[in-house]
Design a protein that fits this description.
two-stranded antiparallel sheet; 8 strands; globular; disordered C terminus
Amino acid sequence: MADNVESVLGKIRPHTSSSLAHQKAPATLLRAIEATFREQNTEPSATAYFAALLTTLDGALQSSGASGPAMGEGDVVPAVLYLLAAVVPYVPHPVIRSNLSTTLSLTSPLFPALTPHAPPLRSQITLCGAVLQALDRAHLDTQGLRQAFMTILQLTLDPRPKVRKKAAEVVKDVLAAPPLPLVKHPYAERVAEWVKAALAEISSGGLPKFKGKKADTEGSEAAIHLLAFLRPVLPTLPAESLSAITSSLLLLPRLGNPYLSQSAYSILSDLLSLSLDDPTVDIGSHMAELLKVILSSPPIKSDAALNSAWATVLGNTMLAYHHANADECASHLTKVWKALFSLLESSDAATRKAAAQALSMLGQCFTPAAIKAAVKERDAAEPKTPIRKIIEQTSASLDALPYARAIPDVLAVVSSLIESLRFRNGARKNSTAAEQLLLPLVTKIAGLRVQKTFEHKEAADATLGTAMRILGPEVVLRALPLNLEAVDRQAGREPRAFLLPLLAQPHPSPLGHFVSYFVPLTERMFDLQTTAEAEGRASEAKVWSVLVEQIWMGLPGYCWGTVDLKQSLTPQFAQLLSQLLYGQPALRPPVLRALKIMVDSNVALASGDPDKIAKLPETVRADAISEEEAQANVAFLRTQAESWLAVLFNVFGSVGRDNQGMVGDVVSAWIAIADPKEVTQAYHKLVALFKQNLAKAQNASTSSGNKGPASDSMTVMTQDLLLLVLPYLSEKDATELLNLYLTTEVIENKDNGVQKRGYKTLARLVESGKVQIDAAAVFKTLEGLVDGLAAAAKKDRFHLLTALVDRIPSESLHLIPSIIPEAVLGTKEPSEKARNAAFDLIVAMGKKMAAGGVVKRNMVEGMDEDGAGEATATVEEYLTMIAGGLAGATPHMISATITAISRLVFEFRDSISSQMQSEIFTTLLVFVGSANREIVKSALGFVKLSIHTLPADLLRPHLKEIVPTLLKWSHDHKNHFKAKVRHIFERMIRRFGWEDVYACAQEEDARKVLVNIKKRKDRAKRKRANAVEDEDEVPKTKPAAGDAFEDVLYGSESELDDSDEEDAHAQNATSKRKGKDAGARLRVDDDEPMDLLSGAASRVTTAASGKRKKPGQDAARFKTEEDTGKMIIDDDSDEGDGAGGGAEGDKVAGDAYRESLTSVDGFTRGPNGKVKFNKDTKKRRREAEAEEDVEMANGEAGQKPGKKSKKKAEPKFGQEFKAKKAGGDVKKHGIDPYAYMPLQQAAKKQNRGSRIGIAGKR
């Protein structure tokens, strides 16, 4: 039987002892059916269960009599329907078709009787849905089937949520899977007609009637249910019905229900978006009427939610209208723009945001003809074209008071206008429409940006960034000079340094602009920096330094497929870039990024490959150079490759390890376009340098007895460069490099770095396929070079062996046994990466054996004298080889072998025969009783994996051996054996049922352990249920470890959720900020008169009102002496309360967190989600005992408050200088005469912390 059916039924079987009738009845019926299968020797399968359940249902209906079948929770018919709903999805479709008449005759008449009973009704709906999806076109016209489907369709409006949801899911799934070769389901037309009729009935005020718990529902509520059903079903309905549905949806807002109106608008938006994505959805002919209806029924201004939905549907309507008929859509632009722009006056932030997004959609509706007309009249005083009117209205809103709170949204609209007007009339050299129409508006925004009272600087920067990206720095800086030099300051011009960070994004300006404008500017700034440093003005020098860095950070933005590359990348500019790479570490990253972008962007554009071009930024793709120009650029860069590779190699050797990756990426980009002769030449230079440095390192270590750090670092650096060059080597050079590295000087080198890179290079060479390899000879060479293997290089050695295994011929599989011991022991390496590489090697060998071939046993070492013949390569033969390690001489080898077998059983569980699985399980189960803990730990992991992975029927006969063996370790705390055993039992109980597991426990103490585990599970289940009810939220899922084998072996649904030390849910809910959208207010400025007619954007503020405190406000909180008027600050309560409760609570919380990390019982979680328990060390035990002693001492102190502590107080700082006879200031009535502390601090609420001293110190 298929595992998926077994997994479903396996969750039902354990409920035979449940106290809930609706759980017990299906489980009991399932057990009875399976007992019948065993008596009749019937193989359990989905088909067998289906036939048995139909027979049972027939018998139950015949014995029910005239009154009809009983539908209570413990009755037979609901239990049969529940099991049928669980089994039918896995029954073969031909079986369902052949038994269709029987199934319909038994189940269809049950709908009236099932209607009052929700649980069996849901099972009936699920059953019908599975049957409908299994049928072909000919069966769908069956009379009873159509009636059943229409009944389910009516239930999508049922008042009961679960019934309604299940019916909607079934209808959606049926319509989404039409029988082949149909595109739309035959029932889709009926569903569309029913939806239109239901919408018409609801619009007219009709009330649908139901026979369920509720007598009827209101029209608006039924409409909400209908819209919830309609949203996911909409894409599956016929295209010709969508226009009528659209018209009906537009009538729903008239019912006056805000949620209903919002849902209707939202579905309209989905429908319009669907018309853009699916060409078969044709509603273009109704767009004019649809737009007219939407514009004629705007919601009231105070309804924030409805305004947002209305704005969204209006934007989507215009976008769909533009795709259907662009010219007609353009004629409505002005009218729709005004309707949407008025929503920016709203006090609701969500409404303003939705309006801004809809206005952005309108920008996408600009046609080339409309843009040309606007450009033609750009100098006219009175705008006449729609686009000019839109620009004028947007510009005026920046100064208008009604739009003061919407300034960020207006700026977002300006950004969308700039993007929509990127149109160039003709060649790329022509200016964009945005430059001709929007440059004054951009200048105005930049003017607002420099005003000190303007609050929305980030939004303004975003808009200016869009202008920089679309227009380019050459255009923007011509209109907005930077004004950074001394001459500009003397002239009183406002500096615009905020434009410099915007240069880094891709833009259309040519590289020549950077060379001609910014390079001289940075040279002058560098001179000013040098002068300031020489004259001791460090802060000024830092300013110039930062400005220079920001300018060079913008260099990559100029390099995206620039058109003038050949003219701009002159020898002088290339020399300047080289000098910066060598001498300016701060400027090195942008220069390297520019060099890489220069190559990658031109290569992508020259290739003409849509996938490569799609990876480029949208700005580059929208305004890209031609393919011929890109190819010319690549050809020019190829001529420069040799000199740039020399520079980059030198830079690679001069930077530190942390920065070599960035330089390496640039080297890879340039060497990919270099001529093959240049690559070979560079390779020979690197090999000669590597041999030279390797010889120097060996001579230095031989003569002085230690390694020379300089030569060693040069050797490693040369190896890194060879790794970068490796993908572009010829076969001859690759073979030469392989032979060079397969020597004791490299992979037995005393330097760990040389070894690691040696193995890594060999693995890359093997994987590249450029080298003809004799696997036997390479394995023999590697076997002889294992003595000097460093621990740090084991991971890379395993990667090399994995690559070599794939290259072993099928007739030479006798080489595999020689690798097995090393791979098995590698699974116990301290390094996690080395362990994972060893597991990959073990699995790779298994896949190689599973692929077939011959194992010549007489050629395996140690078997040549046994007269063994040849064996066919299979996974089971490979497992037999691995199992030889179970006879190892050390517990370490035996433990590693068990772990390796566990990994193979998990990987090849579908390929291993049941007999082999049973033999492996019984063999390894013996090791659970071992006296060695390392072996037991691995064996417990295998048992846990087996219970999760192996078939239940295979494991059930072994329960009598498994349970007593595991119970022996149930009280052992070392190595966390008790917790591991508990988790294994929890899995067993879920898999086999509580009764079967409990029956295998032999002693009374063992039975108590299992009872305790069951109680823990039940208690944790109740706690989770209560937590969900109390907090009304879904519990968080466990983080997966990222590897299926790791999840099974180390993860468990119980390890995190069901422990006694379960972490409580965090109660720290962030408080919502009050008055977030309270609106804008006028800025109070006593020094300057306010003009409300212009410049409103800089005259308003959204910040909270900064009310100043009046003099004496804090002093009024304190008592005063009657005769002197002095204030009295009483801090008794601070001593009593402030130092107590709050601080103690914080201390408890902090101690709990610290204890979870440091104590014996604590654990930490690694980056991949695995739980790692703390080691039980002597130091941790001492700390725990010390903390217990402290707690005991505190408890005793709390019981005897009157007794003084014998512990001597620590002397205060400066105690030896304290006067012996001085008594301090004179006190009256025990009160200090003066308090040297701010009144505001003294006036704070009490119980905030520790006591405040008289000098204001804590």
